[in-house]
C-alpha cells in the first residue's frame, strides 16, 4: 500500500520548476484554479482573462497537470436575478479551456452545507483530485528516474560529479521513504554504496576518476558514526558542497541505511553491515592514503591542487571504536534484553573489533607499557581526543556514551586496563556461548600479550595454553608456531625449565620459522645442556618426536633370528630435526627380554617363517609437531540430491548433500595439551643396546648397534633414547613392534621325499636334513638305519653331503660314506659345527606288488610285519599305497627315531574271462595311474596250481610296450586243455617295467606281479535265440507278432560242478532244473505271453531244450535280439548256495526274473503280459520258496549276442520311428 502525502500552497510563478530542477519532494504535481463566479459579465471581464494567464504560465513551464474547480453558492444565486443557469458558466469554461479534457473542470456545490447534493459533489471532487494527483506523481516520478539513469550513464564523462548524482538518487530515496516504501529507499542507498566502492577499487587499480579528488582530503575529525538522527544534515551539506571526506560520506550513507533498516525491523542486519562497513573503510583509507593525483579542470577553485588522504595515527582506531559502540547502543535502544541475548552471533563481531581497536589505542598511547605513557604518548593522546570534537547533544546526557568511554579509557593506565579487560572478557564469554571457540582463543591470545607487556606471565600462560590446545586439535600450523613462540617466552620468564626446553625443541624443528629462529631455540637447548646448574644425576626427559624421528630399522641377519653365542647387528636410520649438528653423548635402545613356555623348542626354521624376509622395518612418519586434525576426520560423503514434482515427475530441484555432516562438524573433545610434558619415563633395564659419542647431522643419520646373544628367548625393542647432557630425548614406545629371537635348538633329523609321492618298483630320491642345533658333529658320528625287507637303500660312490649355516649360507661339502649290511645301513656324517645343517640325498627302492584281487587270491610271499597296504584298489584312479617304517639311531640321542615312507603302486590291474563257444581266454588290463611313462617288457601269465594238462598260450605280439600316464595296456592268453578242466584256475601275472625317460638303470628292477583266481570257467550251456517273421512274410514289421525260438543246448556230460542240490537222478539219466528269462532292456520288443519259465535239462552232451514265444517289434530298423538269461532252480531246502533272496521269487508258470534292478527300471514300460514281480506280492511272504542261483559267466555262452534283425515299418503308420543301435 502506497501512502502519499500532499500539501496545498498558493500559486506563485517562482514556485514552478525550472529547467534542470532535480527536487522531487517540493515539486508541484497538480495546479488547481478555484472560482465561484456566477455572473456571465464578471466571467467575461475578469475570470476568463485570469484563467487564460494562468494556463499560459503553466504552458510556459511545461506543466500539463491542472484542474479548474467551480464553487457554486445558492446565496449568490438569490441575489442575482438575471444570471444564467449555473451550467452556463461551467459550459463556458469547458468550451473555452477544456475542449478535449472536459473532466478537468469539476463543480463543488455548496461546500459548507450538509446535504446529499453537497456530499456527492465533494466525493466527485476528491475522486478526481486523487486520480489526477496520482497520475501526475507517477508520470513525474518515472521522468525523474529516467533523468537519474541518464545522469548515471554519464559517469565516465569528464566533469561528472558523484556528489551531484548522490543528491539526485537520494531525492528518489526520500520520495520512497515518504511513500513508506523503505525497502525501495534502502535499495537506492545500497546502489550508491556499491557505486562508490567500485570507484575506490578501480582507483586503487590505477583507473581513477577526477571527482574522487574531493574525498581525498586529510582526515581531521573521527567522531564515529551518528545513528541517533534520522538525517545528519551537517554531513549532507558537506556532501552537497563537495567538501566531505571519505569518512563523512561513509558515515552519512550508513546512518541513512541504519534508519531504513530499523524502520524495516532488521536491527541484526545493521550490525552485520556495520562490521563490513568498518573493515571496508579501513581498507579504503589505506588504499588512498599514499596516492597523489592532480585535477586542474575540475578543481572547485579553478587551479591545480594536490589531494591526498592523510590519517593521523590512531584516528581510524578511534573512529572504529566509537562506531562499534554507537551501533551496539543503537541496537540495544530498539531491542529488549532477551532479543539481544539470543542474537549475540550478530553483535559479537562488533564487540571483538572494538576490543581490538582499544588494544591498538592502548599500545599507541603507551598505556600498556610497564613504565606508563611518556610525553610523546601524552601528546598523541591529546591530539586524538581533540579529533573527537565536542560530544554531540543527543549523547551528552548518556552516562555510558561511546564518547565518554573512549575519553575515560585513554585518560589513565588503570582506566584503560579496566575497560580493556571488561571488553575482552565480555567478548570471550559471548564467543564461547555461541560456540566460536577459535575467536575466543584469539581474544585470549591478545589478553596474554597484554599480560606479557604488563610483566604478568603467570596470567598469560593460561590463555596461551588454551589457544595452543585448540590449534593443535584442529591442525593450524602457523598459529601453532606463533603461539609456541609466545609460550616459550612466557615459560622462560616463569622459570619453567622443562617446559621451556620442550617448547624450544618443538620450535627448533619447526619449518615455519626462519633458519635463524630455529638455530636460536636449538642453541637454547645446547646452552642449557652444557651448563652444570642441575644437580648431579638429575635427568630432564623430553619426547623425542621434535628432536629426531626414527625412520627404519635393519637387522643383520635379516631374519632377526640368531642362536646362542651368535652376533646380531641392529642398524637404525634416525632423522634429526635440529637445524645444526648435535653432539649426542649416548643413544640407547632399551630391550625387554621374555621367555615363553616351551620357547626353547622353537627352531631356527620355525622362527624364520614368522619374520620379515628382508629384515627391514619401516616406521610411519610422525606428523609432529603439527597433528593435522583434518586427516583424522572421515572423508566427505557427498551425494547428488534430486527432487521431482509429484504431479508430472519433472525435475525441479537438484543439489549436493553431505550425509556425514554430523561427523565433520562435531565439536572437538577437550584433551590435555600436547605441549605439556606427558610424563615420559626413562626405562632402566638390564638389556640395553648402546652407542656412544654420536654426532647427529641435520637429516638422515645411520647408527649401528651390535650385541652377542647369550640367553635364548625373545627380545623386544621397547624404547629409544638420546642424551645431550642432562637432557634425555625419549621415544617411549617403538611401534610397530620390533623383536629379535635367540634360540637354543636340539639336534633334529628330518627325512622327506623329493617328489610329491614315492613310486614303488623304481629308485626314488629321499632328502636327509640333519639340524645340528647345539650339538657339534664329530668325525666318526654316523646314522644307523635298520633295513626293511621290502625296501632297500641304494648306495652310490658319488653321494655328497652339503653343510649350511643357520642362515642358509653354504659352509662346505664332503663325500658321504654309506655302508650297508643285511640288517643295518650306516651313514657316516661329516664333521659340522653347532647350529649348522647337513643335507644329503639317498635313493630308496620299494618292491612292487599289487593288492589281492577281490579277496580271491593273495600276493606271492608273506608281507613284513611293519609293511601293510594302506589302501587297496578303490573305485577311481587312486594309487594303492604301502608304508615302510625305518628305525634310525642318531649319535646325539639314546632313543631311536622312527620314520615312515609311503610308496604308491603306479599300476592298477584287473582281469576278465572271455568266451568264444568252448574256447576260453584270459585278459589282463594294466592301467598306469602315475604321472610317468613306463616301458613294459616280458609279460608272463603262469598257472600256479597243480594242473599239468592246462596250457596258457599268449596272444601278445610285442615283447615290449610303452604305457603312458593315465593310459592302459591289455594282455590276452588262450586257455587250452586235453583232459577235464579243473574247477578253478590260479594265475600269476608278471611284467617287467622301467621308466621310459631313463635310458639305462644301474640296477635291475623287480617285475610287477598280480595274482588272481578264475573259477567255473568251462562252458556248460549254449543259448541261441532266433526271431522268425510271420508266415507268408519275408521280414518282420512293427506292430505284428513274430515268433521267438530259444534253443538251450548242454555241451558236456556230468561234471564235478554239476553235483549240487539242483541235480536230480532218474533211471535213465541225470537232470537239473533251469530257469530261463527273456528280457529286453532296450524296450525294442514286447514279449507276448510268458517271458520266463522253469525247464528240466538232462545232464548229457548235446541235450537241447527249445522254447517258443511271440514278440512284437515296437520300432523299425535293425533291432538287437532280446536277452536270454539262465539260472539254476534250487529247491527251497537249499541253504548253502550263493543265490538270490527267496522272498524275491515265486515258483509258478508266469514267473518273471529280473537279475538287475536297473534293467528292470529301464524296461518297466514294456512288461510281458501276465508277468508278475515277486517283490510286489506279499501273499507268499513267510512261506518256503524255491531259490535261484545265477550261473557263472564262463558256464553259459550266448550265441545270439550282437545279432540284429531287420524290422520294417507298417504301411499305415503316419509317424515313422526308427531304432538305430
The share of residues in extended strands comes to 25-35%
Mean pLDDT: 81
Helical proportion, percent range: 25-40%
Number of strands: 52
Determine the N-to-C terminus distance.
107 Å
What is the approximate shape? elongated
Radius of gyration: 62 Å
Q: What assembly state would you assign to the polypeptide chains in this entry?
A: single chain
Q: What structural class do the secondary elements suggest?
A: alpha+beta
Largest sheet: 7 strands, mixed
Number of helices: 24
Instruction: Give the low-pLDDT segments.
Output: 292-307, 624-631, 668-677, 854-875, 1134-1181
Pfam family, one: Foie-gras_1
GO biological process, one term: Golgi vesicle transport
Keywords: Golgi apparatus, Transport
Organism: Equus caballus
Amino acid at each position: 500500500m502506497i501512502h502519499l502525502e500532499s500539501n496545498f500552497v498558493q500559486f506563485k510563478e517562482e514556485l514552478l520548476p525550472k529547467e534542470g530542477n532535480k527536487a522531487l519532494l517540493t515539486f508541484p504535481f497538480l495546479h488547481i484554479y478555484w472560482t465561484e463566479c456566477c455572473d456571465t459579465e464578471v466571467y467575461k471581464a475578469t475570470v476568463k482573462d485570469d484563467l487564460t494567464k494562468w494556463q499560459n504560465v503553466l504552458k510556459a513551464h511545461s506543466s500539463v497537470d491542472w484542474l479548474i474547480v467551480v464553487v457554486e453558492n445558492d446565496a449568490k444565486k438569490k441575489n442575482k436575478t438575471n444570471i444564467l443557469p449555473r451550467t452556463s458558466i461551467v459550459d463556458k469554461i469547458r468550451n473555452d479551456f477544456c475542449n478535449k479534457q472536459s473532466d478537468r473542470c469539476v463543480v463543488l456545490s455548496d461546500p459548507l452545507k450538509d446535504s446529499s447534493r453537497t456530499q456527492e459533489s465533494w466525493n466527485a471532487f476528491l475522486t478526481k483530485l486523487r486520480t489526477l494527483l496520482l497520475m501526475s506523481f507517477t508520470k513525474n516520478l518515472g521522468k525523474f528516474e529516467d533523468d537519474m539513469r541518464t545522469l548515471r550513464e554519464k559517469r565516465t564523462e569528464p566533469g561528472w560529479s558523484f556528489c551531484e548524482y548522490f543528491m539526485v538518487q537520494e531525492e528518489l530515496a526520500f520520495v520512497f521513504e515518504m511513500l513508506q516504501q523503505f525497502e525501495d529507499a534502502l535499495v537506492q542507498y545500497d546502489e550508491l554504496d556499491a557505486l562508490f566502492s567500485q570507484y575506490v577499487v578501480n582507483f586503487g587499480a590505477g583507473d581513477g576518476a577526477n571527482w574522487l579528488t574531493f574525498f581525498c582530503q586529510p582526515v581531521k575529525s573521527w567522531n564515529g558514526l551518528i545513528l541517533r538522527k534520522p538525517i545528519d544534515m551537517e554531513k549532507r551539506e558537506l556532501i552537497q558542497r563537495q567538501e566531505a571526506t571519505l569518512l563523512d560520506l561513509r558515515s552519512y550513507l550508513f546512518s541513512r541505511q541504519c534508519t531504513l533498516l530499523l524502520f524495516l525491523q532488521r536491527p541484526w542486519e545493521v550490525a552485520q553491515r556495520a562490521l563490513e562497513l568498518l573493515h571496508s573503510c579501513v581498507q579504503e583509507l589505506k588504499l588512498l592514503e599514499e596516492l597523489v593525483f592532480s585535477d586542474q579542470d575540475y578543481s572547485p577553485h579553478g587551479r591545480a591542487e594536490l589531494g591526498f588522504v592523510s590519517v593521523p595515527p590512531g584516528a581510524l582506531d578511534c573512529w572504529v571504536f566509537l562506531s562499534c559502540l554507537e551501533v551496539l547502543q543503537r541496537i540495544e535502544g530498539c531491542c529488549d534484553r532477551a532479543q539481544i541475548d539470543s542474537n549475540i552471533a550478530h553483535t559479537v563481531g562488533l564487540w571483538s573489533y572494538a576490543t581490538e581497536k582499544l588494544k591498538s589505542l592502548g599500545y599507541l598511547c603507551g598505556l600498556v607499557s610497564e613504565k606508563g605513557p611518556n610525553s610523546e604518548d601524552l601528546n598523541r593522546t591529546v591530539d586524538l581526543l581533540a579529533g573527537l570534537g565536542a560530544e554531540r547533544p543527543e549523547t551528552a546526557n548518556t552516562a555510558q556514551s561511546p564518547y565518554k568511554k573512549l575519553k575515560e579509557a585513554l585518560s589513565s593506565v588503570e582506566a584503560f586496563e579496566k575497560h580493556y579487560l571488561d571488553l575482552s572478557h565480555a567478548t570471550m564469554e559471548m564467543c564461547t556461548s555461541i560456540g566460536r571457540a577459535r575467536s575466543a582463543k584469539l581474544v585470549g591470545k591478545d589478553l596474554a600479550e597484554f599480560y606479557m607487556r604488563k610483566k604478568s606471565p603467570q596470567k598469560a600462560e593460561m590463555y596461551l595454553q588454551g589457544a595452543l590446545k585448540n590449534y593443535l586439535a584442529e591442525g593450524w600450523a602457523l598459529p601453532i608456531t606463533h603461539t609456541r613462540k609466545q609460550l616459550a617466552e612466557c615459560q622462560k620468564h616463569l622459570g619453567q625449565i622443562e617446559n621451556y626446553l620442550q617448547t624450544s625443541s618443538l620450535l627448533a624443528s619447526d619449518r615455519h620459522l626462519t633458519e635463524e629462529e630455529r638455530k636460536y631455540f636449538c642453541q637454547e637447548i645446547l646452552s642449557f645442556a652444557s651448563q652444570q646448574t642441575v644437580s648431579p644425576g638429575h635427568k630432564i626427559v623430553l619426547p623425542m618426536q621434535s628432536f629426531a624421528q626414527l625412520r627404519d630399522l635393519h637387522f643383520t641377519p635379516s631374519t632377526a633370528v640368531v642362536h646362542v653365542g651368535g652376533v646380531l647387528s641392529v642398524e637404525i636410520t634416525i632423522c634429526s630435526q635440529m637445524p645444526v649438528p648435535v653432539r649426542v653423548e649416548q643413544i640407547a635402545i632399551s630391550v625387554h627380554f621374555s621367555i615363553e613356555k616351551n620357547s626353547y623348542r622353537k627352531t631356527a626354521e620355525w622362527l624364520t617363517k614368522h619374520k620379515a624376509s628382508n629384515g627391514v622395518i619401516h616406521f610411519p612418519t610422525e606428523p609432529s609437531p603439527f597433528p593435522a586434525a583434518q586427516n583424522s576426520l572421515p572423508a566427505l560423503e557427498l551425494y547428488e540430491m534430486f527432487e521431482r514434482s509429484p504431479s508430472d515427475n519433472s525435475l525441479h530441484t537438484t543439489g549436493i548433500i553431505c550425509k556425514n555432516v554430523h561427523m565433520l562438524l562435531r565439536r572437538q573433545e577437550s584433551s590435555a595439551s600436547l605441549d605439556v610434558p606427558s610424563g615420559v619415563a626413562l626405562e632402566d633395564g638390564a638389556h640395553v643396546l648402546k652407542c656412544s659419542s654420536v654426532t647427529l647431522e641435520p637429516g638422515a643419520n645411520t647408527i649401528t648397534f651390535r650385541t652377542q646373544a647369550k640367553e635364548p628367548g625373545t627380545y623386544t625393542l621397547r624404547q629409544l633414547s638420546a642424551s645431550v647432557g642432562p637432557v634425555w630425548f625419549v621415544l617411549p614406545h617403538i611401534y610397530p613392534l620390533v623383536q629379535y629371537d635367540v634360540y637354543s635348538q636340539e639336534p633334529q633329523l628330518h627325512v622327506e621325499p623329493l617328489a610329491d609321492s614315492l613310486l614303488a618298483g623304481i629308485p626314488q630320491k629321499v632328502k636327509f636334513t640333519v639340524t645340528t642345533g647345539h650339538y657339534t658333529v664329530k668325525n666318526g658320528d654316523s646314522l644307523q638305519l635298520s633295513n626293511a625287507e621290502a625296501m632297500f637303500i641304494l648306495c652310490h660312490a658319488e653321494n655328497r653331503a652339503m653343510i649350511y649355516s643357520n642362515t642358509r649360507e653354504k659352509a662346505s661339502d664332503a663325500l658321504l660314506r654309506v655302508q650297508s649290511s643285511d640288517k643295518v645301513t650306516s651313514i657316516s656324517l661329516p664333521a659340522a659345527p653347532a647350529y649348522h645343517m647337513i643335507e644329503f640325498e639317498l635313493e630308496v627302492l620299494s618292491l612292487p606288488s599289487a593288492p589281492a584281487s577281490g579277496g580271491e587270491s593273495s600276493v606271492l610271499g608273506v608281507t613284513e610285519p611293519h609293511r601293510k597296504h594302506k589302501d587297496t584298489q578303490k573305485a577311481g584312479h587312486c594309487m594303492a599305497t604301502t608304508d615302510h617304517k625305518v628305525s634310525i639311531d642318531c649319535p646325539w640321542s639314546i632313543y631311536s627315531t622312527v620314520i615312515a615312507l609311503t610308496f604308491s603302486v603306479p599300476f592298477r590291474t584287473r582281469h576278465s574271462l572271455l568266451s568264444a563257444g568252448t574256447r576260453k581266454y584270459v585278459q589282463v588290463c594294466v592301467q598306469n595311474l602315475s604321472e610317468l611313462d613306463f616301458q613294459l617288457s616280458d609279460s608272463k601269465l603262469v598257472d600256479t596250481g597243480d594242473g599239468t594238462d592246462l596250457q596258457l598260450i599268449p596272444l601278445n605280439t610285442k615283447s615290449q610296450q610303452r604305457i603312458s600316464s593315465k593310459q592302459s595296456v591289455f594282455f590276452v592268453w588262450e586257455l587250452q586243455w586235453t583232459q577235464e578242466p579243473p574247477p578253478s584256475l590260479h594265475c600269476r601275472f608278471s611284467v617287467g617295467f622301467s621308466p621310459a625317460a631313463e635310458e639305462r638303470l644301474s640296477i635291475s628292477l623287480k617285475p610287477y606281479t598280480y595274482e588272481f583266481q578264475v573259477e567255473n570257467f568251462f562252458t556248460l550251456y549254449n543259448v541261441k535265440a532266433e526271431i522268425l517273421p510271420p508266415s507268408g512274410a519275408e521280414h518282420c514289421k512293427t506292430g505284428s507278432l513274430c515268433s521267438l525260438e530259444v534253443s538251450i543246448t548242454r555241451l558236456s556230460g556230468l561234471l564235478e560242478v554239476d553235483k549240487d542240490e539242483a541235480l536230480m537222478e532218474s533211471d535213465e539219466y541225470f537232470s537239473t532244473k533251469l530257469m530261463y528269462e527273456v528280457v529286453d532292456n532296450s524296450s525294442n520288443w514286447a514279449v507276448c505271453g510268458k517271458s520266463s519259465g522253469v525247464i528240466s535239462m538232462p545232464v548229457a552232451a548235446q541235450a537241447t531244450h527249445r522254447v517258443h514265444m511271440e514278440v512284437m517289434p515296437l520300432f523299425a530298423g535293425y533291432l538287437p535280439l532280446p536277452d536270454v538269461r539262465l539260472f539254476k532252480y534250487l529247491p527251497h531246502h537249499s541253504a548253502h548256495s550263493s543265490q538270490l533272496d527267496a522272498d524275491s521269487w515265486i515258483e509258478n508258470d508266469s514267473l518273471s526274473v529280473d537279475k538287475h534292478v536297473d534293467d528292470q527300471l529301464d524296461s518297466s514300460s514294456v512288461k510281458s503280459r501276465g508277468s508278475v514281480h515277486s517283490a510286489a506280492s506279499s501273499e507268499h511272504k513267510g512261506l518256503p520258496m524255491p531259490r535261484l542261483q545265477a550261473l557263472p559267466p564262463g558256464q553259459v555262452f550266448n550265441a545270439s549276442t550282437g545279432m540284429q534283425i531287420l524290422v520294417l515299418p507298417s504301411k499305415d503308420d503316419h509317424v515313422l520311428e526308427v531304432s538305430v543301435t
